[in-house]
Amino acid sequence: MNIDEQGWCSAARRVESPNCDARAEAMAIDMVVIHNIHLPPLPAGATNFGGDDIERLFTNCLDVDAQPCYAELSLLRVSSHFLIRRDGELIQFVSCNQRAWHAGVSRWAERERCNDFSVGIELEGSDYVPFEAIQYDVLDGVLKALQQRYPLRFLVGHQEIAPERKTDPGPFFDWKRLEDQFGELRQSDAISKS
Questions:
Q1: For residue 43, is the peptide bond before it cis, meaning its omega torsion is within 30 degrees of 0?
Q2: Does 122 participate in catalysis according to the annotation?
Q3: What are the respective helix, strand and coil percentages of the chain, to the nearest 5?
Q4: Is the alpha carbon torsion for 38, 43, 47, 49 positive or negative?
Q5: How far apart are CA 86 and CA 37, in angstroms?
Q6: Distances (CA, A) of 189 to 130, 154, 183, 184
Q7: Where does the N-acetylmuramoyl-L-alanine amidase domain start and stop, copy by copy (predicted)?
Q8: Buried/exposed code over 141-157 (b: 16+ C-beta within 10 A; e: otherwise)
Q9: How far does the chain reach from its first CA to its final CA, in angstroms?
Q10: What pLDDT tens digit does each residue of the chain (194 aa) get?
Q11: What is d(CA 31, CA 150) in angstroms, rounded to the nearest whole number?
Q12: Which of 85, 112, 113, 129 is most buried per CB count within 10 Å?
């Protein structure tokens, strides 16, 4: 798996999102933000993931009449660079060289607007159930490919850059597993700078 000069991953299925824009030229990509996502929203403990509503959300094609809760998403314009499905499928929506709209209002190490300098990776899941082993395997590959292409310094959860608004990737996300391979990106002194 690698990331080419245009910011596309060789192992990902490409589904381009219009919800992105150019990064500032001088802005180094030095952070990865881990998220979880599931559509439609699931009650605590539910595990019926799947479907293509996440793709539809990121490409502005979500049928807002399909679920009552989707009405509030009708004007939402969001995206992520990557989505890792429960079965390990990797989908890329935005070139890593572009700014995806995944972090929202956010702050890290005295810097605002984390979308400007980060890559967003969504794992299909929720705060209420563990992620699949294959999702971690794919995540490891993506992180290694990103490290080869960009000067990464930080690996954070969405809740660490937007603690008043977000809880993902949630308590079931296995940070310890990532720290074994990517500990330099999860150093406690780096994490405490937020």
A1: no
A2: yes
A3: 25, 20, 55
A4: negative
A5: 11
A6: 27, 11, 12, 10
A7: 17-170
A8: bbbebbbebbebbbbbb
A9: 31
A10: 999 999 999 999 999 999 999 998 888 999 999 999 999 887 777 777 999 999 999 999 999 999 888 988 888 999 999 999 999 999 999 999 999 999 999 999 889 999 999 999 999 999 999 999 999 999 999 999 999 999 999 999 999 999 999 999 999 999 999 988 898 898 644 554 44
A11: 9
A12: 85
The catalytic residue among 5, 110, 122, 124 is 122
- The pair of structure tokens assigned to 100 is 């995806």
- Kindly list the distances between the CA atom of residue 39 and the CA atoms of 43, 78, 107, in Å, as whole numbers in the listed order: 11, 14, 26
Domain 34-191 has CATH 3.30.1330.60: no
What totals of helices (H) and strands (E) does the chain contain, helices first?
A: 5, 10
3-class state of residue 14 by DSSP: strand
Q: Is the Cβ–Cβ distance between 79 and 17 less than 8 Å? A: yes
Tokens at residue 31, please?
């952070």
**Residue 21, class by beta-carbon neighbours within 10 Å (0-12 exposed, 13-18 middle, 19+ buried)?**
exposed
Q: Which two tokens stand for residue 143?
A: 């992180």
The span from the CA of 14 to the CA of 95, in Å, is 9
Q: What angle do CA 82, 33, 152 make, to 5 degrees?
A: 95
